[in-house]
Input
Amino acid sequence: MLGCVRVATASQMARVITAGDKDGRSYVRRAMRKLEEQGLAETNGKIDKEKIWNLTRHGQQTIVNGGELLLRRRPEPAPTG
Output
C-alpha cells in the first residue's frame, strides 16, 4: 500500500486491509515496526499522536525488484536562492 500512496498512518492502512468491524491498527503498527527494523520503512512526522509512515529508498527498490510497482523518482529539492 505504501508503494502506491507514498505516506499513510496505521489507521489509514488498517481501514484498507481489515474488515469493516475490525480494528487492525495494532497489527499494522507491529508490521510497520518490523519493516522499520529491516530498513524498508520509516516514520515521517505525526498527525496528532499517530506516526506517518513511508517506504525508504531500499523499501521502494524492494517493491520494484519484486515486480509489484514501477519505481517513481522522488522530486529533487528546489534550489535555494
Q: What stands out?
A: The chain has four helices and three strands.
